[in-house]
Amino acid sequence: MGIAKSIESYGIHHYYSSGIDIFLSKLAELTASNFDVMLLDLDCNIVYENKLSDFGYNQTLHMNILQSEYSIQNTKQLLPSYSLRYPINYEYEIELEIEFHPNQVRSIVFLTFEHL
């Protein structure tokens, strides 16, 4: 038996870009990482997966990108949301999921497990 606890964190980030290559480049600098990317379209169909965005770093992180439709000033736009899996060294978990949204909200979701 076990008890699950979820830790969530929300914040604002100022480096979101709807240009996928621009956003990945900025995030690569911040994390010193390359990215293994999977892109999903509006209907959650895979556009491509296992596409390496190589910025010359030794570490490669997994990034899922979901295109979603938003209405901005009565104009519909497709904008990406990014979901980064960042490795951690924790007894019950191996990674954090960090999401970056078009409204510049960043969220971190971490599920811990305590086994009884």
Secondary structure blueprint with pairings:
Blueprint: E1 2-12, H1 20-31, E2 33-40, E3 46-53, E4 59-72, E5 75-90, E6 93-100, E7 105-115
Parallel strand pairs: 2-4
Antiparallel strand pairs: 1-7, 2-3, 4-5, 5-6, 6-7
Folded structure, characterized:
The protein is mainly β. It has one domain. It has one helix and seven strands. A seven-stranded mixed β-sheet has the order 1-7-6-5-4-2-3. It is globular. The mean pLDDT is 86.
Q: In terms of structural class, how would the helical and strand content be classed?
A: mainly beta
What's the domain count?
1
Distance between the termini: 6 Å
Taken in chain order, the helices and strands follow as EHEEEEEE
Low-confidence stretches: none
* Strand residue content: over 45%
- Radius of gyration of CA atoms, rounded to a whole number: 16 Å
Average residue pLDDT: 86
Number of helical segments with 4 or more residues: 1
Which of globular, elongated, flat, extended, rod-shaped describes the shape?
A: globular
* Count of β-strands: 7
Fraction of residues in H or I helices: 10-25%
Q: If strands are numbered along the chain, what order do they take across the biggest sheet?
A: 1-7-6-5-4-2-3
| Biggest beta-sheet profile | 7 strands, mixed
Structure summary:
The chain is mostly beta strands. It has one helix at about 20-30, and strands at about 1-10, 35-40, 45-55, 60-70, 75-90, 95-100, 105-115. A 7-stranded mixed β-sheet has the order 1-7-6-5-4-2-3.
Task: From the structure above, extract its key features.
mainly beta, 10% helix, 1 helix, 116 residues
